Amino acid sequence: MAHRIAVVPGDGVGKEVVPVGLQVMRALDAPLAFEELPWGCDFHARTGRMMPEDALATLAGYDAIYLGAIGWPTVPDHISLWECLLPIRKTFEQYVNLRPVRLPPGVRSPLAGRGPEDIDMLFVRENTEGEYSGTGGRVHVGTDAEVAVEVPVFTRRAIERCARYAFERAQERRGHLVSVTKSNASRFAYVLWDEVVAGLAGEYPDVRVERVHVDAMAARMVLRPDTIDVVVGSNLFADILTDLGGAIQGSLGLAASGNLSLGGRGPSMFEPVHGSAPDIAGQGRANPIGAVWSAALLLRHLGYAAEAGRVERAIDAVCEDGHVLTADLGGRASTAEVGEALVSALA
Ligand code: IPM
Ligand code: MN
Q1: Which end is more exposed in the chain, N or C (fewer Cβ atoms within 10 Å of the end residue's Cβ)?
Q2: Which ranges in 202-304 belong to alpha helices (H)?
Q3: Could you tell me whether strands 64-69 and 32-36 are parallel, antiparallel, or unpaired per DSSP bridges?
Q4: What is the pTM of this model?
Q5: C-alpha pair distances (Å), 175 with each of 104, 172, 209
Q6: How far is CA 36 from the centre of its chain?
Q7: pLDDT digit string (tens) for 99-113?
Q8: Which ligand is nearest to the CA of 81?
Q9: Is the CB of 11 under 6 A from ligand 1?
């Protein structure tokens, strides 16, 4: 039986990079069946909704979701995201947002003198709560007494399941875990965060855990990226740090992610970290590698480890060769040309 994948190209360059990801996955002969769902801001223009009323029930029937990008200037971002991307992450309890930050061979990092041996990190981002809890409200709207409250929510359960996943990845990698915190200023939430991580450490004696405040972590990623292996962070902290990660791995256009539903609550979702990029959308110049790398994460998640490895090696080969790259990586190739190069590089 084929695995059924819901494909949501979404908005902007999402519609340009997702076809390349599909092209690469189709070239692998894995038993995957793709069904495209035309949701996003165009759908909103026609229907007043980002996706149909029964969209989450529809998605629940798939084995995985492959997403391009959500968001376009026609719909305020807090609406497009809270009516599409964020409910998917939360409803299916995609509680880990997995984001590899690795500099491929041949790509120049903006960090002087750093090569692939220095930049190979794995971010494990808590993906259901924290500053993204959606708790809050506004009163006295439009008056000068206006108040807005946005309440971060941290639960032992969500911190623990995410941290456990990070410890396990650290065991498989270089045995080092950085837990990103801010428990010097935040007296409640990040103190709980630290306690939960420290409480798990005893179960993973082979993992060395370091607690690093988020401000220091930003500097550490720039100054000593070679000292970073696996990182676990809250929703907002790891959101910010993984854009920095995208920059130091050579381009945000390379950055991949998997929103993993590990508790059997529904499908996982795979998407490039870059957004819909209105500034370059429609020009065929977007880097498809972040989307293709996300496809590799999807393949591995569904059990196609060999195929995932082939895709990752093709990415490395195209980067190392350096002749067919998009403008963000200093090249002149189109999205489609990079797609062809990736397919030809599949060994
Ligand atoms: C990301 C994005 C989203 C996030 C936005 C679009 C809500 O920046 O996937 O990193 O903050 O999670
Ligand atoms: Mn982000």
Answers
A1: N
A2: 214-223, 235-248, 289-301
A3: unpaired
A4: 0.98
A5: 22, 7, 9
A6: 20
A7: 999 999 999 999 999
A8: 1
A9: no
